[in-house]
Write a structure and sequence with these properties.
Strand order of the largest sheet: 16-2-3-8-9-13-24-23
Structural class: alpha+beta
Radius of gyration: 32 Å
Helix content: 25-40%
Distance between the termini: 39 Å
Largest sheet: 8 strands, mixed
Number of helices: 27
Number of domains: 4
CATH topology of the largest domain: Anaerobic Ribonucleotide-triphosphate Reductase Large Chain
CATH class of the largest domain: Alpha Beta
CATH architecture of the largest domain: Alpha-Beta Barrel
Length: 952
């Protein structure tokens, strides 16, 4: 295999786009421009005579693999008065506004401090355990406390309102101790979608974990006394705390596990381990972490982060004897530490308390990125003892080089003010595990920084500065995918995004269709393998590691729970998992209003005081991805049976055929033949797709709706002992189908059966506009061949992500009345959140033909005209065009962006494209609007469009 220098790789388009969008300033056009700015800015903290020398050395360090945190790359050396620090931890006391005896600010004072921090660009972590529990006495007002979760909602709304520097919302971490009386409310606080601007974690102690292991009772306690009227049996312990009640430790643990199994929160922080390992346990207590969890911090502490791209130090990648350049790595680490130390003197501090805390301890957090790719390039499997061994060796080298460099800086600039050699090097602190030679140097010269190491998620900095090297400590998530990015002019651009190691292997002539076994992605290894990597690296990291263990949706709960217990026993400081939900949110309809049916739920508003008024939905469904399955028409070499029903009417009779397969309990199609009214064949065609679905309740809803269609003729059919009548042919077809389905074995709808189609609707019944009305799209249709001359109306609303979506269609004028039934059916289809479904339905109708029904008309959106096989076909094409105008479907009727709810392997659901990442259920994506944002490698990642969002 031909070996190429990594530097020779041409830049991926997406890497350049992310760099220009997020990090480049002014006239900067490439990575080198950004690096020169950052290097020059950080060199200003050196002696004036040394600025040029250090600017050159810092640039070489950046070019050689060091990547400062995103805020440093974005703001250092600019006029932006934003902090260079990504995240902080801030205290919250029990008082409403006053500083408590413990020095913690009151709740609303803390809120003001947090708002200022987020305004300057920093995320914030808090521990809310000081806030008295719900039902505790409040003496000053003779009232009862509302509890920490209620105040968290205030912080949540504030975060939602405050736009931070750089135009992104601030991230927040909320922690509550496992012995707080409101811990159960906290565990379930996000079950119904509350606290959306928080990550939450339970701080658990060794005592609690031991109580879980021993299956004993656990006391829920607080310093504040409960109100006697609200609690029975409370008592005060010898330590002065009040025991509100006791719970079975294992039951509380089960609640935590079930919640994080269902929707990835709360996380678990092993606080005893965090404080035991802390180099500064002699002068601080740690109660919370930054929002991504890799930096446990004291009150007003900050995380000053950067990562080194390990791929830069692999020699003879994919060759006969690949190796890691430990000497070059050590040199890069040394100057990286100096740069991070300088950040503490260069940055703008939102609060003086944060500046004082940083100057007293000078915490920094150097980590690495690209570990997964570096191991691949050295032909080592991530999930092997050899791979873990190499990762441990690299981490140990990083630790030793970082601590040695900090000693060198202390010789030059002095130690951090709170340094005490005996206490700092005492066991079991992380510093106590250093080699004796480094410990001797620390005793002799001191050390500049109290903490030095933190392995953080790298998110977009890996894209912009490291050719999409694998994120942080993680293995690659996928080898390649398509990134669908919205441009400033509103257009969309698709990028092919490749993993760095995969790309290098391909360009060196490797067979990408038969990748070697050391190419192992995140989802191809066990959850235990992910945790074992943390166990291998953890002893050499003095703060913590951000790692996400992605597990499949069918991962057994018992094994999932064992992961957390094993992590505690292994001495980890925390663990984060992500398991895709079957459904991450509830199905939306609309809130009742005067004109709205009373069985709808959710929220409906109209845009007031605007001429362009549309219904606006405030929440949206999050259906399980890849859950809607609509197979093609079954093929049977010997044919298939069907039942025939004769419908009588004044202008002649027609037959309704209901086809099914032997031993099947559900019909799969219907069609009509004979003297049936125009448009009825289109109704049968679209119903056949519904019959092949996997949701009996959906079909029942469709048939019930169709059976209520009214017309101006009389139709009758004998069904069993009854003669059924209806005024429309569509209604009679619906009644025939309901009769036949009821006759088939095991067709009753079980209330416990899954209803994926209904779960995917953003409104089960048609939202009503109220007396103020709403704007709809209308178009004229005239078929001279048949005499059809009518107006088609498409009503539209606005989804929570701002997307305008059609939700109902109607007709007025001269047209076949059976098209009322077709409009009813398609209106239901429009309210499926994934537009792939309505696209499929409309494409099936484009070729629908009627005898002597063809006509010549303009192609929507074009100047030319063409022949259309029927009024129905032209109507379907016009609706597709409207979806295309809204940027939802292409003009061919395929979704512009795959939402992932529809199964893509069925051939005709999507236009020809290659899907690189299987969609997973998740939060709404701010880029494409799909509910497909998962936690990947500690960062938000959209599995539908590839958008990389906030880390933490």
């Amino acid at each position: 295999m031909k070996n190429e220098n990594i530097a020779a790789l041409t830049e991926q388009d997406i890497c350049r786009e992310v760099l220009l969008e997020k990090y480049a300033k002014g006239d900067e056009r490439n990575v080198d421009d950004v690096r020169r700015r950052v290097a020059r800015a950080l060199a200003q903290c050196e002696q004036p005579a040394d600025v040029d020398r250090f600017a050159d050395a810092f640039f070489k360090t950046l070019d050689g693999g060091f990547i400062p945190g995103g805020r440093i790359n974005s703001a250092a050396g600019t006029d932006l008065r934003a902090t260079l620090i990504n995240c902080f931890v801030q205290p919250v006391g029990d008082s409403v506004s006053e500083v408590g005896d413990d020095g913690k600010p009151g709740i609303y004072s803390a809120l003001l401090q947090a708002a200022e921090t987020m305004r300057r660009g920093g995320g914030v972590g808090y521990n809310f355990s000081k806030i008295r529990p719900k039902g505790a006495a409040v003496k000053g007002t003779n009232s009862l406390a509302s509890g920490p979760v209620s105040y968290m909602r205030v912080f949540d709304r504030s975060c939602e309102t405050v736009e931070s520097a750089g135009a992104r919302r601030g991230a927040q971490m909320g922690v509550l101790d496992c012995d707080h009386p409101d811990v159960e409310d906290f565990i379930h606080a996000k079950d119904e979608g509350d606290l959306r601007n928080f990550n939450i974690s339970v701080g658990v102690s060794d005592a609690f974990m031991q109580a879980v292991a021993d299956d004993t009772e656990w006391e829920l306690v607080h310093e504040k006394k409960p109100d006697p009227a609200a609690f029975q049996g409370f008592y005060q312990r010898t330590d002065g705390k009040w025991v509100y009640r006791k719970v079975r430790a294992k039951d509380l643990w089960q609640q935590i596990m079930a919640s994080t199994y269902d929707h990835a929160e709360p996380g678990v922080l092993f606080m005893s381990k965090i404080n035991r390992d802390n180099n500064l346990s002699y002068c601080e207590d740690i109660e919370s972490t930054n929002p991504c969890g890799e930096q446990p911090l004291p009150d007003y502490g900050c995380c000053d982060l950067g990562s080194i791209n390990l791929c830069k130090f692999v020699r003879d990648a994919f060759g006969e004897q690949p190796s890691f350049d430990f000497d070059g790595f050590a040199a890069n680490v040394a100057l990286s530490i100096r740069m991070l130390d300088n950040v503490l003197d260069l940055t703008v501090w939102p609060l003086k308390e944060q500046q004082r805390e940083a100057q007293n301890k000078r915490r920094v957090g150097l980590g690495f990125t690209g570990l997964g790719d570096a191991l691949i390039m050295m032909k080592l499997k991530y999930n092997s003892p050899e791979g873990r061994g190499m990762a441990a060796s690299i981490s140990e080298a990083m630790r030793d080089s970082a601590y040695s460099a900090s000693v060198d800086i202390a010789i030059d600039k002095g130690s951090f003010p709170l340094f005490d050699a005996d206490k700092y090097l005492a066991e079991p602190h992380c510093a106590s595990r250093l080699p004796d030679a480094i410990k001797m140097r620390i005793r002799e010269h001191g050390i500049r920084n109290s903490h030095l190491l933190s392995i953080a998620p790298t998110g977009t900095i890996s894209l912009a500065f490291a050719d999409n090297a694998s994120n942080g400590i993680e293995p690659p998530f996928s080898w390649f995918y398509t990134r669908k990015k919205r441009m400033q002019d509103g257009s969309k651009q698709e990028y092919q995004v490749e993993d760095h190691a995969y790309r290098m292997y391909r360009l060196m002539g490797g067979d990408i269709n038969n990748l070697p076994d050391y190419f192992v992605s995140a989802l191809e290894m066990s959850a235990e393998d992910h945790m074992l990597m943390c166990t291998a690296v953890g002893p050499f990291v003095d703060t913590a590691i951000s790692k996400t263990v992605n597990v499949p949706v069918d991962y057994p709960f018992a094994e999932f729970e064992n992961l957390y217990m094993a992590a505690w026993k292994a001495g980890l400081k925390g663990i984060t998992t992500y398991r895709p939900n079957s459904v991450l949110g509830s199905v939306l309809s609309v809130e009742p209003s005067k004109e709205t049916p009373q069985d709808l739920s959710g929220t409906l508003t109209a845009l007031e005081n605007e001429a362009d008024r549309r219904i606006s939905l405030q929440t949206a469904p999050t259906p399980a991805l890849a859950s809607l399955k609509y197979p093609h028409r079954p093929k049977s070499l010997g044919g298939n049976p069907s039942w025939t029903y004769m419908v009588e009417h004044a202008e002649g009779d027609f037959a309704v055929f209901v086809g099914h397969l032997d031993n099947e309990s559900q019909p799969f199609e219907c069609w009509v033949n004979g003297a049936h009214p125009r448009g009825l064949g289109a109704v049968a065609k679209t119903l056949s797709l519904d019959m092949r679905g996997q949701d009996k309740a959906w079909l029942t809803m469709k048939l019930d709706s169709l059976a209520r269609t009214f017309g101006d003729h009389s139709y009758s059919v004998e069904l069993g002992d009854e003669n059924i009548h209806a005024s429309s042919a569509s209604a009679i077809v619906a009644k025939v189908l309901r009769h036949r389905i009821a006759q088939m074995p095991a067709t009753e709808t079980d209330n416990n059966e899954p209803t994926p189609m209904l779960d995917a609707m953003f409104a089960r019944k048609e939202p009503k506009s109220g007396t103020d009305g709403t704007i709809s799209w209308s178009v004229d249709i005239n078929n001279p061949q048949t005499g059809d001359d009518f107006v088609l109306f498409v009503k539209e609303l606005t989804l929570p992500n701002g997307t305008r979506r059609p939700y109902s269609m109607w007709m007025a004028g001269t047209y076949p009345r059976e098209l009322d039934g077709l409009c009813k059916m398609l209106s239901h289809d429009m309210r499926v959140i994934d537009p792939a479904w309505i696209g499929l339905k409309l494409r099936k109708l484009i070729n629908y033909a009627e005898p002597q029904g063809d006509f010549f008309a303009r192609v929507p959106g074009q100047e030319k005209s063409q022949s259309w096989p029927s009024t129905v076909a032209y109507m379907a094409r016009l609706v597709i065009h409207r979806y295309a105008m809204l940027g939802i479907l292409t003009e061919e009727g395929y979704p512009v962006e795959d939402m992932g709810v529809m199964m893509p392997e069925q051939g005709d659901l999507f236009s020809e494209r290659v899907e690189k990442v299987a969609p997973m259920a998740g939060k709404p994506c701010p880029e494409c609007g799909n509910h497909a944002v998962i936690k990947k490698d500690g960062c938000e990642f959209c599995t539908a469009c590839g958008h990389v969002g906030a880390c933490g």
